[in-house]
Recover the amino acids of this structure.
């Protein structure tokens, strides 16, 4: 836990502090923390989960056609990694260009007070602790707006942000289901529109 806390602090603060054997040193740290977790291996404490900005639950498809395609692509990759990469290079380039365009736009995206209030109201409605979720949702909403090529954050951007930023912050008990119920999110969004 101690080492994980140090990594998370360095990621959040942009600096790492080292104190050992009477030496104290601080240096700049810039990285993005990406992690995977299998819930069957145990739970993370809520304070630690809150330090992860966004979370995605990944489940294997139960559709035979999808599973077969995954296997086929993996076998194709193993047989010819270079050829496999070449087949998808145009799609990869298109995606990279779309990301670059969104990055260039993100500073120009407007986050109106009405939508900022909606973010705060959603976080309050889902009873998340602290302010980290609000900040993550604001940043994610702006990024999603840039991704879709728009100039102003709207409800659809906040919904996407909520689906990524809130589920792992709302669990209070290890037996709580992960995720966020779409109906609950719809109700909370409707309530924020009325406020």
């Amino acid at each position: 836990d101690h080492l994980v806390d140090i990594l998370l602090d360095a990621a959040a603060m942009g600096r790492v502090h080292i104190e050992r054997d009477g030496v104290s040193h601080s240096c700049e740290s810039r990285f993005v923390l990406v992690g995977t977790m299998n819930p069957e291996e145990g739970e993370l404490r809520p304070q630690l989960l809150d330090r992860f900005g966004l979370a995605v639950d990944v489940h294997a498809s139960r559709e035979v056609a999808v599973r077969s395609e995954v296997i086929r692509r993996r076998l194709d990759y193993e047989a010819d990694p270079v050829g496999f990469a070449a087949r998808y290079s145009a799609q990869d380039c298109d995606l990279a260009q779309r990301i670059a365009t969104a990055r260039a736009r993100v500073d120009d995206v407007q986050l109106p007070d009405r939508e900022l209030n909606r973010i705060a109201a959603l976080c309050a409605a889902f009873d998340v602790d602290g302010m980290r979720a609000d900040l993550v949702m604001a940043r994610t909403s702006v990024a999603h707006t840039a991704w879709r090529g728009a100039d102003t954050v709207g409800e659809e951007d906040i919904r996407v942000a909520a689906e990524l930023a809130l589920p792992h912050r709302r669990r209070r008990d290890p037996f709580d289901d992960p995720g966020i119920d779409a109906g609950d999110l719809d109700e909370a969004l409707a309530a924020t529109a009325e406020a």
Remarks:
- The CA atoms of residues 126 and 153 lie 21 Å apart.
- The chain is about 60% helix and 5% strand.
- The longest helix spans residues 89-105.
- The longest strand covers residues 15-20.
